[in-house]
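Second opinion, please. Pick holes in both lines of this record:
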Amino acid sequence: MDKGCSSKEENSKDPSRPSRNTKAAMGMVLFLSAVFLAFTSLLGDKSLFHLHKMQTEKEWWARENTRQAKENEILKRKSLAARDDLFIVEKSAREELGLVKENEVIYLFDTGKIRKIEQPMPGVR
């Protein structure tokens, strides 16, 4: 019956080996740490969802910046052309601002829409 170990040796614990409770506690700490890391990586200010949203927004701003740069280039060309050509200035003044030259006659045509005119236009009789 003697297998080389006495019952006293079986019951004594080796201080270098962790106990069952310590193993369970370590396992629980590792599990909770993993859950916490997963939770924080999916939600919060520095989460994967927030990162994706910021990346999408960055791409939109890059496209918007490119569009604005093209529009600025077009406006710059128009501005330079207007400096050299008075016809462009006059055309813009007539179309966009509704200005007329002195002694010009303005004809208004009824387009079928009824509109209420509060005051007559200055210069029109």
In short: The chain is about 60% helix and 0% strand.
